[in-house]
Amino acid sequence: MMRDQIVRGIMNIIDRVGGPMTFRIILQPLMASLLAIRAGLKDAREGRPPYFWTILTDSSQRYSLLQDGWRSIGRVFVLAIIMDLIYQWIYLDWIYPLELITIAVLLAVVPYLLFRGPINRLARRFRGRVVSP
Question: Hey, how many other C-beta atoms are within 10 angstroms of the C-beta on 105?
C-alpha cells in the first residue's frame, strides 16, 4: 500500500516535467535563483557568512537567517504551491498534499539554498579584484 503511494508520487512528479504547465519547472527555479543571487550579493556587501552553511552550523543565527530567507523566497514558494495545486486539480483530478509540498520545495527552496551561499562567496572573493577607474 505505502509502496504504491510512493511509486505513484514519484511517477506524478516525473510526469510534470514533460506535461502541461512545464514552463513553471523552468520559471520558478529561475526566480528563486535570481532572488538567491540578489540575497547572496547583499550578504557579501554586509560581510555575512555563507547562508546555508551557517543555518546548518550556527544555531544562534539559524532563526534570523530562516526568517530572512523566507522573506526572500516566500512568494515564489506560495506561487509554486498554487501552480501545483492547479496542476493537480486539473490533470490528476485530486490533490496530493505531500506531492504539493515536495514540488514547491524542489522548485523554490532548493535553488535558493544552492545559490545564495556560493554567490556570497564568489562576490566576496571578487570584490577585492575590481579595478576602479
Answer: 14
pLDDT, tens only, 14-60: 877 777 778 888 889 999 999 999 999 999 999 999 999 999 999 99
Rounded to whole angstroms, the Cα distance separating 120 from 80 reads 25
Report the distance separating Cα 36 and Cα 120, nearest Å: 9
Query: pTM for this structure?
Result: 0.82
The three cell numbers locating residue 83: 501552480
Which residues, 6 or more positions from 36, have their beta carbon under 8 angstroms from its beta carbon? Answer: 72, 73, 111, 112, 113, 114, 115, 116, 119
Q: What is the share, in percent, of the chain residues with pLDDT greater than 90? A: 57
How many CA atoms lie less than 13 Å away from 100 in the CB half-sphere? 16
DSSP 19: S
Instruction: Map grid coordinates 519547472 to a residue.
Output: 25
Confidence at residue 109, expressed as pLDDT on a 0 to 100 scale:
95
CA 35 to chain centre: 9
- Of the candidates 32, 17, 2, the one whose C-alpha atom is nearest the C-alpha of residue 87 is 17
